[in-house]
Amino acid sequence: MRYHPLTILFKLYQLIKNSFFIIIILYVIQGRSDFWLYEYGRYAYIVFIILRILYITVSWWKETYQWDKQAFHLKKGVFVRNVSTIPFNKIQNVTRQTTLFHKIFRFTSVSFETAMDGADDTIKFDVVTKKHASFLTNLVQKDEAENTDETDNKAESEERVEPDQETKEFKTIHFEPTKRELWKASFTSLSFLAIIPITAGLYDYVEPFLPKLEGFGESFLQSKWLIFLLSLIAVIIAVSFGVIRTFARFGKYKISSNERYIYIDRGILNESNFAIEKRKVQGLQMRQTFMKRLFGLTEVTLISSASPGANDDNVNVNSLYPFLPISQAYSLIEQLLPEYQLKTNMTRLPKKALLVKLLRPSYVWLIATALLIYFKPKPFDIDIAWWIYSFVLLGLIILQRILDYVHTKYRIDEEQVQWWQGGLTTQMFVTKRQRIIEIATSQSLLQKLFGAATLQMMNRSTPVHTETIVDVPIEVVRFYHQWYKERKTQIKKDENG
């Protein structure tokens, strides 16, 4: 079965979209330039477009897919044929995205992410009808349901609900942001600052075409009141841009679940619908930037074996709402994944760990100081001694290390491990013992003197997800290793039980 014919148009749309700035530079800004690079570049780009159109058309004709009760069978390649079979039970996540292009033609796209590493780690249908996308999704989820213990008929019905189906009959809605929360997110994300580089870039191109003003016009442009007025207008435009951008990205946001799946729906212009099976969640990660810490907010990311990418807004589709209050984030996690019990009571590092952090040499500071001694810079024509910049940088590094010591905490329970660490930005990592694939320990000479070590834990992901906690007491590291060894005993009990 061939992919939908609109796939050709969609790939051409992506081609033009991704090379938009090249087109502007070659044919608009430098359209009359006789410089050989731009002149031959225009011809080369036309040849590239023609060849790309031919390739897209031929690949659509030759690439096919089919399915049976257990797997997808894909045939790809134009010059080199590649036939692959992807079993349904290897699929970890399902993502549906409906961009403005899809909305115009009333279609959608669907991606199936697997735990495999390579060119075939994702099965993507760029353009499909919504009915066919639902059929393919149900095909995968139905196979997964048949491979799990199903003792409850109602649960079986729930598992067949489509990820994008707007119904509350089988899904429990856990979170929908209010307008107040969206306004708060607009300022916390600082997305309005994105307009500054855009404006600066446009000004560089427009400046040569601006008329040269003399006399009153020149003095008016140098007026402090005019500068204040223009700055105020720029701030209003920037804030408005940030608010609109945030509402467009996180409007219609909804986190829901049933007994087997977690669903994350988001977006107004570009919609995305993400579904992940609960048992395939490898761990959780909570991140706080400096601004989010000031407002008491956090972002929770679901770690899975597959590696779902970011959509057009550069927001990971497997991320829960990025501006959750911490208490609400804890509650939401326990609702979605009851097996994860987050605790606020955690163990801090001993005081000797702070001494280790402060005594550790900073190569960044040493290199920066050497460069300052050599160049003796004077930014903005401010005459300040080079050693002042060096001391300021050293102070920031010391502050970062002190905050890292203050924020670093850990907790280990019978089946769960929980870390919290960071300086100006912080993050917490939570996983189950059975989800950890490897534990590694390293110890520097300085750490040996103070009886500390660095501990790493790796979870199955693409790429492998690694978490590191530094300057942990050596006796705690040994306890972690013993705790991890008992994982085999627990797995055998689960298999026999």
Could you walk me through the main structural features you see in this protein, from its secondary elements to its overall organization?
The chain is α+β, with helices and mostly antiparallel strands. It contains 17 helices and 20 strands. Strands 6-5-4-10-9-8-7 form a 7-stranded antiparallel sheet, sandwiched between helices. A 7-stranded antiparallel sheet has the order 13-12-11-17-16-15-14. Strands 1-2-3 form a 3-stranded antiparallel sheet. It starts with 5 loop residues before the first helix and ends with a helix.
Q: Which helices and strands, and how do they pair?
A:
Elements: H1 6-18, H2 20-29, H3 36-62, E1 64-67, E2 71-76, E3 82-87, E4 91-98, H4 100-105, E5 108-114, E6 122-128, H5 130-146, H6 153-159, E7 172-175, H7 179-188, H8 195-206, H9 216-221, H10 224-250, E8 254-257, E9 261-266, E10 271-277, E11 281-288, H11 290-295, E12 297-304, E13 324-325, H12 326-336, E14 347-348, H13 351-359, H14 363-375, H15 386-407, E15 409-412, E16 416-422, E17 426-432, E18 436-442, H16 445-450, E19 452-459, E20 465-473, H17 474-496
Antiparallel strand pairs: 1-2, 2-3, 4-5, 4-10, 5-6, 7-8, 8-9, 9-10, 11-12, 11-17, 12-13, 14-15, 15-16, 16-17, 18-19, 19-20
Helix pairs in contact: 1-3, 7-10, 13-15, 14-15
